[in-house]
From TrEMBL, chain A:
Gene3D superfamilies cross-referenced by the UniProt entry: FAD/NAD(P)-binding domain
Domain Glucose-methanol-choline oxidoreductase C-terminal: 427-551
SUPFAM superfamilies with a match to the protein in the record: FAD-linked reductases, C-terminal domain, FAD/NAD(P)-binding domain
Name of the molecule in the record: GMC family oxidoreductase
Keywords: FAD, Flavoprotein, Oxidoreductase
Glucose-methanol-choline oxidoreductase N-terminal domain boundaries: 215-329
Highest taxon of source: Bacteria
UniProtKB/TrEMBL annotation, chain B:
Principal EC category: oxidoreductase
A GO term for molecular function: oxidoreductase activity
Transmembrane segments annotated in the record for this chain: 21-41
Record organism: Piscibacillus salipiscarius
Cited Pfam families: Gluconate_2-dh3
Protein name from the UniProt record: Gluconate 2-dehydrogenase subunit 3 family protein
Amino acid sequence: MATKKDKVDVVTVGVGWTGGIIAAELTKAGFNVVGLERGEDRSTEDFQMIHDEYRYDIRHGLMQDASRETISFRNNPDELALPMRQLGSFLPGSGVGGAGVHWNGQTWRFLPYDFQIKSMTDEKYGQKLGDEYTYQDWGITYDELEPYFYKFEQTAGISGEENPKGAPRKNGYPTPPMKSTPILNLFKEATKNMGLNPFQMPSANLSENYENPDGQTIAQCQYCGFCERFGCEYGAKSSPNVTVIPTAKKTGKFELRTHSEVVEVIQEGGKATGVRYVDVYSGEEFIQPADVVVLTSYVLNNTRLLLQSNIGQPYNHKTGEGVIGKNYCYQILPGAAGFFEEKKFNTFMGAGSLGASVDDYNGDNFDHSDLDFIHGGSISITQTGRRPIGSNVTPSGTPSWGPEFKKATLKYHNRTLNVGSQGASIPHRNNYMDLDPTYTDFYGNPLLRLTYDFTEQDRKLHKHISGVCKDIMSEMGADIIEEASMDEHYDIVPYQTTHNTGGVIMGGDSETSAVNNYLQMWDSESLFVVGASAFAHNGGYNPTGTVGALAYRAADGIQKYLKQGGGALVKSKSKSSLT
Amino acid sequence: MADEHTHKTDESRRQFLKNSGYFAGGLVGGGILGSVIGWQVDDNAETKGQNQDGNQGGKQDYNRALKFFKNRAAFERLGAATERIFPEDDNGPGAIALGVPYFIDHELAGEYGNNEKVYMKGPFREGTEFQGFQSRLKRKEIFMQGLMAIEKESQNEFNDSFINLEAEQQDQILSRFAKDEVKLKGVKASTFFGLLREATLAGAYSDPLYGGNTNMDGWRMKNFPGSKMSYIEEIESEDFVEMEPSALYDHLH
């Protein structure tokens, strides 16, 4: 029998960027918030031994424990899904701060085109892709989101400079761009020569010491090269742990409960009234009642908790009906590697978002009239700190072990550069999430089942953008250039990116989306589902900037909801079960 | 018979040393294990650039014992296999001199070998090549089985122990595992070989605290300075910056 706790105004499931933002904003507005986090508490002082590639990068020290909880996976609906027995393709975080601890910090605003992708594409080109591609507008415009983007950038202190092809900004970045380096300069010169528009990548590794509007301080980045998959021992990478979580704590209205794993959202009379969770140490069950329940537990768990709790209509890929689990997207990663025989670069130095980019091939910044795909991607060079276990690059044709392998990996370790793109991922009818019929987690609940493969759209985008990357690498003067190619199918094994999106998507119509533009569920007015789960497709950038903006938007929505005493904040275009 | 046996052992040992690249270096004294795998290597005047007072260089390095393997033969075989994956060459030490076999032994005894963070619930099915690791076996069981199969293959193919084979012959055996031309129970031979390869590289390049990367020589070969606190002074440098590496040890002491 679960023990019932005292009711609070708001409970969040997970305490990373999104849970932290909700907690900070709602407690500042005077509401009581409880944050339930399955993992441990941690912050800057827990990262003193962080410069350990084996422990944190190779053995995934900060990541979700797959022995307790994972997903099952198959490439298409006709296959048998099998469990992802160890982490590989993507790395969900665990513990306070979530993936916001081990992210690189590349912080972008999605383009205006992203939010109105269907209407803008149709208007300019007519129907570009077949009906099996379920891309749709997000139910909000860039202009409506612009202030929330800025709010997130101010909280995180983002360092950056003007992007001539990016989304228009009303304000500059809170801090100036990071230092440029010979690697970045080579890219900038080459792309300039090609008539493109290079700029320094917007970064959450800060160029200088900074105090955010909430009074939290973030230190200057030291370019130590241990960012991606690591926490920052200087507090120089913006994370929830050094910004929104201490802000929430400072109000005295936030209670953080760690080792508390939520297993069910409780729904009564068409409304979420609280959550059931397990104390991971004692095994005891508790119910935390709340006026507002906010799912802030990453794309995969947001989707799974709704399915597990029977909230919202599960997506059916055969009929196209239902919304929960729909429009799962990933990130398409075109690129080109360049090997330099005569030049050695300081690739071991760097920072997670030390980079230079061009946006000339992102969104609809280039004409697609004669192309048979939509969208594109930002193209960047980064200097994130190359490490010796994980990186053993050789020109293709080199054996993967033995004397030649050793020789080549030593030679090229500091003589190889990569130009790569965060390519947009467009949803497809057969790419979705539901519950696995066979495999269960530590608590006996069904695993989330992922059905995903690359599409024709993905392949065409990949080929086109990889060609551009190859041209850039050629202009940069590499001696050997190798264009990236796509595997026959999406493979769950090699690390690609932790940019999973969709499953609880936002939109203007309750028939085709799960949440409105405040991320309030159409089918449960007291339930807000926050994160990249709301993305109707994935854009041509790293997602966190847009996740942060949506979280601030949701925080506004929750305040409105609590102040007005309930009700739907947006009216659906078609009839909603609420109206 | 006794003489013959001794003779064979000496030959084998010489072959092993030759394969390992130590023969030409004139390494003397000690048993095979003592001289080739282990701290005594550090006594060798030919071993260049090693700090005898480093955190693993001292003679009293009690970490260099076995906590997973139960007998020398399997451990030697492991060492010989890792040495073919990452051999000694003009650039510097190979897997054995870097302590990689100790690294793997220690890892197999702990979280890694016991699959503590791997989802191990059944049913177990083979799956497609895009669905990843599906074995019911723990990594420590895969290594034990794989190393036994290496010996069996060597006996079948060359009528001799793996550690006695010429380098080319050893490569031939290992290639058969890499290409799935050998059958193991409950796991593909290529999965075992992949684990062996990854563990070898991890042992060569992880922080010396794990027992490999002796004296940070793996890092030196790759011009990787290890665990520096800051590059803010060097990040804009036009030239390649070479510096002495440092390890996590320095963060605590």
